Amino acid sequence: MPDSAASATVERPHTIDEYKSSAKPTWCPGCGDFGVLNAVYNSLKVKGYNTEDVVVISGIGCSSRFPFFVSAYGFHGVHGRAIPIATGVKVANPDLKVLVVGGDGDAFAIGGGHFVHGMRRNVDVTYVIMDNEIYGLTKGQTSPTSNVGFVTKSSPKGSVDQPLNPLALALISGATFVARGFAGKPKELADLIVQGINHPGMALIDVYSPCPTFNEVNTFKFFRDTTQTIPATHSTSDRAAAIELALQDDPLYLGLFYQATESESFDRRVRRLQTANADESAVMDRLFEQFS
Ligand code: SF4
Fold this sequence. Notes:
Number of strands: 8
Mean pLDDT: 93
Distance between the termini: 44 Å
Shape: globular
Radius of gyration: 19 Å
Bound molecules: iron/sulfur cluster
Number of helices: 11
């Protein structure tokens, strides 16, 4: 997939420390989100972005505290609404590099509708989901990605719900970039995030990010034992093959599942329309001025 010239440019060398804010992460010791945070710092360093050109947007949940820990613009939004906020930011200022971050509850429960429409709309943002298969902030209830039989405070006899498959849902919704990472492999995760940033459209990276406080099943060891890198023979431009891989649970694959060879983002389409209808836009601007 060709990199967009603007986003591939290293603006100037930066150190990792320049992307760290003065706020120290408040996550529990051993939380997978630390590994994801390190991967994001590294990916920003690789891109060489100036901190004032980056916006980190989140919803609600443990992982949604993320914007506080990055030295960049940040928006800790409302539950499940990170994608609409990011869409507005990117359309209003396409030069900004927009990262969306959050957890599985935020993305797939209350934010489920926005997730589907975000994927088909293809706004040029990178969406990193810290998927721990449980609600951590509210102290341990089943989430949309919890497995059948999973015992939590809200399911003392085991969850009876089928888990949602984030990658398969994104792929059938029309996503143009779909990947899976693991917090226990932050270097590989940083590489995926860089690829996602380079992609001219919405890049979904679902990350296994264990919650050692409330999920004793899906641990770092569990994911080390059950994951494998996607075979080199997989064609990342084949959506059907990507869906097939996403549906497999033995092993659970890590890496880039799918990247569309053609991807025109929502914000670019909007700009194209604005340019084509410049006269009409001027009329609308004058009308708004009259009533403002
Ligand atoms: Fe991380 Fe779980 Fe602690 Fe939340 S409750 S900070 S997800 S370990």
